[in-house]
Amino acid sequence: MGLLRIMMPPKLQLLAVVAFAVAMLFLENQIQNLEESRSKLERAIARHEVREIEQRHTMDGPRQEAALDEEEDMVIIYNRVPKTASTSFTNIAYDLCAKNKYHVLHINTTKNNPVMSLQDQVRFVKNITSWKEMKPGFYHGHVSYLDFAKFGVKKKPIYINVIRDPIERLVSYYYFLRFGDDYRPGLRRRKQGDKKTFDECVAEGGSDCAPEKLWLQIPFFCGHSSECWNVGSRWAMDQAKYNLINEYFLVGVTEELEDFIMLLEAALPRFFRGATELYRTGKKSHLRKTTEKKLPTKQTIAKLQQSDIWKMENEFYEFALEQFQFIRAHAVREKDGDLYILAQNFFYEKIYPKSN
């Protein structure tokens, strides 16, 4: 018997294709609506949880100032730079918060705008310093550095951060906008449908891969001054370096994230006790991977490296890396390929006057 073939008329084929395309658009729209509904629900739940905590503390009676010792009064701010493994690190904080007894709060700014209005800066500073029900607290979000001292605050929060090789960060962000990641694979991204590779974008002089897009880590550390966001500003880079040294407790690099976590656990065990083991053995050490990411060619990298903007962002990255490695060298020792935290290396003596 011959092979039976059923041929569909061309018009029906066209209608079938159109119907399929419409169905796909409808499904994508429904997925987007569900995602927006989920975000609204998350915000409502968060507000409800905050009210519950505040009510619980009110029922327990007013907390006296003396009840908060140094560790219980501690606040950490992780003003995370996008695409620097920040989700992986933040989820460690979430996993440990119940066990180590602290609160974790996400700073969710409208459209991920890293610059707060002046009135929001005042609100944020007031929340951080006076919201005792949320202390000790770990705050995280895509927000540029904010100098608490200018608001007359006596005790400033502890700033930490992680940065990444600037070209690697931009490549990751470029593909993230187009293909998303394995954390929320169903979410429609802003540039979804654009199949152009990063190499092709650079070759064509596209805006999404322009050297100006590298300018992000410097302004995040520089802060809320207008000059910080002036692309290529030497003042902004100098200010970012100053803040990194003087205002940040520790700044790690994505490429050495485990060492960053190890140092935090050694220095701030109130928050990070158990973090190193969790990172090594837990499922969230590589939680978020950008989908469809293709490494750029040497020619693409060389072209970006000709830019003065890259040179400045890379100088800042190398500066941060050198500082981190300096701190690590004085805090750990290597043995059989593993790093070990040094024990206390000082003591007190010749104490006078002598007690009777």
Automatic annotation (TrEMBL):
Pfam families: Sulfotransfer_2. GO terms for cellular component: Golgi membrane. Its main location: Golgi. Catalyzes the transfer of a sulfo group from 3'-phospho-5'-adenylyl sulfate (PAPS) to the 2-OH position of iduronic acid (IdoA) or glucuronic acid (GlcA) within the heparan sulfate (HS) chain and participates in HS biosynthesis. Required for metanephric development of kidney formation, suggesting that 2-O-sulfation within HS is essential for signaling between ureteric bud and metanephric mesenchyme. InterPro entries: Heparan_SO4_2-O-STrfase, P-loop_NTPase, Sulfotransferase. GO terms for molecular function: heparan sulfate 2-sulfotransferase activity. This is Heparan sulfate 2-O-sulfotransferase 1. Belongs to the sulfotransferase 3 family. PANTHER family: HEPARAN SULFATE 2-O-SULFOTRANSFERASE (PTHR12129), HEPARAN SULFATE 2-O-SULFOTRANSFERASE 1 (PTHR12129:SF17). It is a single-pass type II membrane protein. Homotrimer. Interacts with the C5-epimerase GLCE. It is found in: Golgi apparatus membrane. The gene is HS2ST1.
